[in-house]
Amino acid sequence: MLKKGEGIIIRTTDYGESNKILTVYTKEFGKIGMMARGAKKPNSRLSSVSQLFTYGSFLYHSSRGLGTLSQGEAIHSFRAIREDLFKTAYAAYTVELIDKLTEENVPNPSLFKLLYHTLYYINENYDMEVVTFIFETKMLAVAGIAPYLDGCVNCKREEGPFAFSVREGGFLCQRCFYLDDNRIPLTEASQKLLRLFLHFNLKRLGTISLKEKTKQEIKLILDKYYEAYSGLYIKSKRFLEQLDKL
User: Fold this and answer.
1) Count of H helices and E strands in the chain?
2) Could you tell me what percent of the chain has a pLDDT over 90?
């Protein structure tokens, strides 16, 4: 069956001397796999549209297994991402995370928009770390492991100040601090931003500037929470950490 959809390439795998297997997150069909025959050849008509991060329109033959790409046209190449090591690293983490946390053939147009806007903002020189924080927070909801951020996870008290408990899965108010001796202290800014990131429409992102202390708090929480609940090993995350040390 011949199908057409818009999608973003989130993974490429070389196959044989001249072919590529593409994993594409599409607006219409969710995550799908397709063979791009001859895409590794420089003069192939599929070469330019088979690059990682490319947002394009794809015409492909669908089957029970791997589809076959027939035609493709790039809509946005996200060229700036591929030309910058740091942008590439953040974008690679984004697409690897969405690959690991989604099943094939499960449409989710809102998730497609989230992926597109995340790559767009990375490409357009927004603060890559902040954009990634928002994406990571929203992907926790996609994975079904979102923390409780609307108040205290234990007593549901809505007034802060709060600390964050990885073990309890969300904010703890002062009256409930006794539940977790390893709770993570938070500034008021971090409390507000974590809640905002979970519910915020990324399309509406404007200029945003965070203090380094706030970034470090949010990063610590997200890293520990993913480690505790996601069960994922993300290669690109390790590379990002190495870049941070540089």
Assistant:
1) 7, 8
2) 85
- State the Cα–Cα distance between residues 81 and 94, nearest whole angstrom: 12
User: Considering its fold, how many domains does the chain have in total?
Assistant: 2
d(CA 4, CA 59): 4
218 and 193 Cβ atoms separated by less than 8 Å: yes
Q: What is the CA radius of gyration of the chain?
A: 20
pLDDT tens per residue, range 127-139:
999 999 999 999 9
pLDDT digits (tens, 9 = 90+) for 74-101: 999 999 999 999 999 999 999 999 999 9
Residue 227: inside a domain:
yes
- Of 71, 70, 67, the C-alpha closest to 33 is 67
The pLDDT of residue 203 is: 86
Asked whether the beta carbons of 222 and 166 are under 8 A apart, the reply is: no
Average pLDDT over residues 141-152: 96
| Same domain flag for 14 and 120 | no
| Last residue in a domain, options 77, 106, 123 | 77
State how far the Cα of 206 lies from the Cα of 2, in Å rounded to an integer: 40
Domain of residue 25 covers: 2-77
Residue type, 39: A
Q: What is the CATH number of the domain that holds 105?
A: 1.20.1440.120
Helix (H) or strand (E) segment spanning residue 24: strand 19-26
Q: What is the pLDDT of residue 160?
A: 83
Angstrom distances, CA of residue 126 to CA of 33, 186, 245: 30, 25, 21
